[in-house]
Each structure stands twice: as structure tokens, then as C-alpha cells.
């Protein structure tokens, strides 16, 4: 790939330099090359590696926290060697860890390149908030916050006084509002009934308004 780049400082351009690595952002070959590049990422027993583009989650489980932490740390050491080999530099500052258990004991922290990673009470992966007890209360709160913001933006179109007909109002709801409520629902639908009920209330209020039904 014969690609070059220049640097512009004020009104002056640098001389062209050839790109030695990387692919154009949005290029049609980028996904294929990425898959080939990541194909030999270390895989070991009892460790699950989940990849979505460049977002990576590494999962370890055990009957006790220490039986999950030790294999995870061993895997991270192998992963570090693989990253060095392929000249991949992860952002340690953006790396987060969560230990899902019911107790608040002070367990040893895992390390990435010698940097201890603090155990978080909540982490977000692919827009889903995971809490240490996996009750998804924080995630349902985030859903309601996003939904209310989107609803306010569309209020003039779906309110009772809107001049839009029912079909158009329903279309706005199905295409713009409802996906916020159902996004990744197979993951968090196991949450408590009270959390599900609070989301159902939002949906009921919206549909009553759209249909101009009685309260």
C-alpha cells in the first residue's frame, strides 16, 4: 500500500513520509486485516477472551476469588508477551477490572505491565454497566436516564397535542425510543422485577401519550 502522510504546522507542510504500518480508517480491508492480526491471541483453558473490534474483555472464573485471580494474572503475563511481539501498546490507564462476588474482601489486584488495576464496583463494556453483584441496578438507571433524554428531544412530536398521525408517532417510538429500552436486554433482563417495572412504567407512559389514551 503506497500511502504517505504530511504534517501541517500553521502554513507550512512537511515533506511527505511513507506510512510503514496501519490501515486507512474505514478501509474495506481493515476488518479482515484486524481479524488476521488478532487471530493468534493467546487462548488458554478456563479463560474467555471476548473481542469486539478493539474492545477486549478477559473473563476468569473460580469457586473462590483467588482461584479466578491467579489464572487471570498468569494469562495477562502471556498476553503481555504477545502484545510486545506484535507491537501492540494497550492503554493501561483505560484498563478496568471487576471482581464479581458478594463480599467486599481486599483481594490482590491484577497487574498489567506491572501496573496494579483497581477493582471497580462497576465497569461499562459495550455500553452495558456491569456491577460486582450482577444485579444490573446501575445499568437500568442508565437506561432510564438515556430514555428520558431521548424522550424530551422527541416530546413535541409524540405528545398528545402533536399534529403527527398515530402511525408516525409509533414509528418514532419503535425506531428511536424503544431500542434504548431493549438494547442488550438478554444480558440484563435477569435484573430484579422492581428494576424491570420501572422501565415498563416509562414505556407505558409513552404509549399512553402516543395513543392519546386515558391515564
TrEMBL record:
Highest taxon above the source species: Eukaryota
Phylogenetic lineage: Eukaryota, Metazoa, Ecdysozoa, Arthropoda, Chelicerata
A Pfam family of this chain: RVT_1
Gene: jockeypol_149
Taxonomic source organism: Araneus ventricosus (Orbweaver spider)
GO molecular function: RNA-directed DNA polymerase activity
This protein's UniProt keywords: Nucleotidyltransferase, RNA-directed DNA polymerase, Transferase
Name of the protein in question: RNA-directed DNA polymerase from mobile element jockey
DNA-binding listed as a keyword: no
Keyword Nucleotidyltransferase: yes
InterPro entries listed in its UniProt record: DNA/RNA_pol_sf, RT_dom
Domain Reverse transcriptase: 1-130
Amino acid at each position: 500500500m503506497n500511502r504517505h502522510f504530511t504534517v501541517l504546522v500553521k502554513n507550512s507542510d512537511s515533506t511527505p513520509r511513507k506510512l510503514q504500518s496501519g490501515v486507512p480508517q474505514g478501509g474495506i480491508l481493515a476488518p479482515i486485516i484486524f481479524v488476521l492480526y488478532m487471530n493468534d491471541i493467546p487462548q488458554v483453558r478456563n479463560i474467555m477472551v471476548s473481542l469486539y473490534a478493539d474492545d477486549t474483555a478477559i473473563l476468569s472464573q473460580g469457586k473462590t476469588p483467588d482461584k479466578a485471580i491467579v489464572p487471570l494474572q498468569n494469562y495477562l503475563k502471556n498476553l503481555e508477551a504477545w502484545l510486545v511481539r506484535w507491537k501492540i501498546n494497550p492503554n493501561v490507564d483505560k484498563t478496568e477490572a471487576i471482581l464479581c462476588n458478594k463480599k467486599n474482601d481486599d483481594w490482590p489486584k491484577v497487574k498489567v505491565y506491572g501496573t496494579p488495576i483497581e477493582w471497580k464496583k462497576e465497569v461499562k463494556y459495550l455500553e452495558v454497566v456491569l456491577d460486582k453483584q450482577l444485579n444490573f441496578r446501575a445499568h437500568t438507571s442508565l437506561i432510564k436516564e438515556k430514555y428520558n433524554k431521548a424522550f424530551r428531544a422527541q416530546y413535541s412530536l409524540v405528545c398528545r397535542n402533536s399534529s403527527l398521525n398515530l402511525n408516525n408517532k409509533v414509528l418514532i417510538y419503535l425506531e428511536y425510543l424503544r431500542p434504548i429500552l431493549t438494547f442488550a436486554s438478554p444480558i440484563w433482563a435477569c435484573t430484579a422485577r422492581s428494576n424491570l417495572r420501572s422501565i415498563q412504567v416509562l414505556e407505558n407512559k409513552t404509549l399512553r401519550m402516543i395513543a392519546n389514551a386515558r391515564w
